[in-house]
Structures are given as structure tokens and as C-alpha cells.
Specification:
CATH architecture of the largest domain: 3-Layer(aba) Sandwich
Number of helices: 16
CATH superfamily of the largest domain: Aldehyde Dehydrogenase, Chain A, domain 1
Strand content: 15-25%
Distance between the termini: 83 Å
CATH topology of the largest domain: Aldehyde Dehydrogenase, Chain A, domain 1
Radius of gyration: 24 Å
CATH class of the largest domain: Alpha Beta
Bound molecules: 2-aminohexanedioic acid
Number of domains: 2
Amino acid sequence: MAQKFYNFIDGEWMKALNGETTENRNPAHWDEIVGIFPKSGKEDVKKAVEAAVIHREEWANLPVPERGQILGRSGDIMVEKKEEIAKLMTREMGKILKETRGDTQEGIDTAYYAFGESRRLYGVTSPSELPNKAIFTITKPIGTAGIISPWNFPMAIPCWKIYPALLMGNTIVFKPATDTPATATKFVEILTEAGVPKGVVNLVHGPGSRVGEAILEHPDIGVISFTGSSAVGRRIAEVAGKNLKRVSLELGGKNPQIVMPDADIDLAVEGVLWGAFGTTGQRCTATSRLILHKDIFDKFMDILIGRTKGLKIGDGLIESNDVGPVINESQLKKILNYVDIGKQEGAKLVLGGNRLTGGNYDEGFFMEPTIFTEVKAGMRIEQEEIFGPVLSVIKISSFEEAITVANDVEYGLSSSIYTNNVKYAMRAIDKLEAGITYINAPTIGAECHMPFGGFKNTGNGHREGGKWPYEVFGEIKTVYIDYSGKLQKAQIDTDITK
Ligand code: UN1
């Protein structure tokens, strides 16, 4: 019998009010049911928001360092359970254990960052323009935050959002991706075990069309943080805009790795292998474009194709595998469709392109690491986010051309250049239109204490990571204390032009 999981509302584990359920299956062995989860609707969100509203004051009244202690403790529990979480995550979404351990570690790092930040939520003080008057700022919670998270980083991304939201004193309604409800459940259990009071974090499982929409429309949710596709991001921004809700969006990427002729070629090959095929290419930071200088093109491609052929594809629970399955059948179809598009556009398929079949492969959704050369700037496989193990290689003849090609997409999340020429490196830092630029390192591997987010259509200008999301989840109040004992008029009493 598959294990049953529940929503968590006002401290109670409960079924969806409509009684509906969905199965969460292992993408490496589709017959294996990881768990049965509620397929909730609008009514469950309503209940969750009610709880979140009732418990706002109690949570907001706790001193920030006390909230920090609880969050730090949840990091300790995650350390103890790291292996258990990693295995569960691999079973529910496929990426290899090394990576699910990393994902969990990113959650732990974020918990400890929040703990530290609880003693560092500084405001601003400033001299007043008037005598006998003090000025400073404090930050208050917004109220209740709606958290909508993706399946590719089932622990790290909810942590990026929920820890800052909680530390700032908000209560939460959390809708994890329907492909990764188990890791999300584990996270909520850990927060509860660490001492987050009932009703402060409410978990509602279910599809975006019901649960996500209900969060979006609910008047008592003041801020929404979302990571996922640009199409959904646009919809969230539209509805949030209409209702004047704050929204932080982390959307797509089409991340380039440039390799110049002076680069350390072996290092650059390692970089693109990890960036393009790690997590089966299912990262918003994945390297989906290799922008390769013509002078090293043939040599580089020989080594890259040889190394890619050596990658072991299979169940992520087997430590010797390098690449796991893709998340589900519809995603696999979407990736294969992009392979067809690439062929039709005239790109040359030099490796892969197919679903892997035979033996254990038939049990899941495995895809060959795929490389296209003769990709021209402007082709769809060069412009659109594929979210799979497909690398488009674009041959360029100069540094200037590399930068033009790199920037000529709607997204701007991550970017990378391999070069030993400091002028190229510095100019790339200056010119690449991306929220993250790596020098001699792949496009993946952001650290939790640095800003994470992108230029252009990758988002709406916010950043996750480090101190930046704390601004997203807080309302600033400016306080003026006049101890002069008389009415003082700003701008008028202080008019220095008179
Ligand atoms: C994502 O792909 O959505 O920088 C997040 C990285 C990871 C986070 C990726 N630390 O690749």
C-alpha cells in the first residue's frame, strides 16, 4: 500500500475537502508510487488562509531572534535527516543522490543564514533636517505569503522563500509542485518539529489551476513568491497587479557558456558537461547554449562528445550514475519535440536525441544527452527554454559576436565565460545581460547567500538568496520622533533658499 500524505492546515494533517487524491510516482520506475497526495481545491486554500490569518499576530509578536532560533533548529534537524531527504527527493523527482544531497544542503545553508539574519535585521537611522527630531526605520511583516515552488529544487527553493518570509514574521500558505509533494511535506514536518507554531505554515497540495489560482486570487494573501515558467509568471503578475499584491518571480533561462580560444579546454568541457547535463538539464540555470569560438571548435567538440558519451544515465539512487531521468512523460515529450524542431530548423544533431529504451530504461523517462551543432542565433532551440538535456552549440568568430549571441534572448539568468584573458573576462562581466556571470565555472552552482535572479524576462526584478528576499517579505515603516515640543514643518522651516 502506498503511503498517504495530507495537507497541513492549522496544525492538522487533513485530506482535501473534496476527497480527491493524486499519485506521486518515481520518474525512474513509473510503477513505484512514492505517495498518494490530496488534490485540493479552492476551499482548502480558503481554510489555509483563514488559519494563516488567525495565527499572524502570535508569530509576528515573537521577537525576531526567537523566530530565528526556531528556524536555525530546523536547519539542525535537516542536517540529521539529510540522507533521508536526499533519497526521498531522488525517488520523487529523479536527480542523482549527489545532487539531492546538494539540494538539501542548500536548504540547510538557507536555514542557518536565516538564523544569522535574525540578529541582523538592521533598519536605517539618519539625522533629521529639523532640530530635536529622530528618524529611523523598522520592518513589519506583510501578513500572509503565498509560496508556489517548482519540482527541480524541491527543498532548496521552498527554503529560499519560506525562511525569509517566516523570519520577517509572515505566516505561509505553501503550494509545492505536484511532482514533488513528498519533499515539501518533509520540510513542513521539520519546521513543525523545530517549533514553528500551528497555523503559521500551511501546506496545500494540488494543481496550479486550482490551488495556485486560489492563492493568487485570495485577498488575504499579501505577497506571492513564485519560481517556474514565464507563462505562469506572467499570469501571476497580471492577477497580482490587478489586486496590488507584491510578487517576486523567478522564471526561465537560456543560459550561455562562452568558450574563447585561450581557455583551458578540459576545464571548459567539464563545465559544460556539468552545466548542460547535470540535473538532466532541468535547472533554470542549466547551460543550454555553448557559444564556441571557431578556432577551437573541432577539438572542443571531439572531447565534449567523447565525454558526453561516457555519462551514465539511470536511476539516481545508484551512486555510479551521472544523470537521472526527466521528471515525467509530458516533459519528456516536450523535450523530444524540441529535438524535432531543431532538426527541422536545420541544426545538426551530433549526439543523442532519443528516449532511452530497453531494460530498466523502459520503467521510466530517460533521455539521451543531446547535442546540436550548426545552431544559428534566432533558431527556436537557441531561444526557448527546453528544460532538458539538450545543448545547442553556436560557432562564433569573435568575442563581440559571442556577447551579441549570448544576449540575444528574452532571458537573462545565468551566464559563463571560459577564458584566461582578463580583458575578455572583465568585458564579459560588464556586457553579459544576466543576473549571474561565472568566469571559468559553469552556469550552475549559485550559493545561497548571494543574490539569485535574472535580467529581462527571467523575472520582475527581485532577487532570492542572501539578504535580498528579506526585503520582499517586509513592509518598511519610517518613524519620526519630534522631541522639540513644538510644531516643526519639514521643507518649510528648513528652506535654505530663503
Ligand atoms: C534553479 O535552477 O531553479 O545555481 C535553481 C544553481 C542552484 C539553484 C538552481 N544552486 O544551479
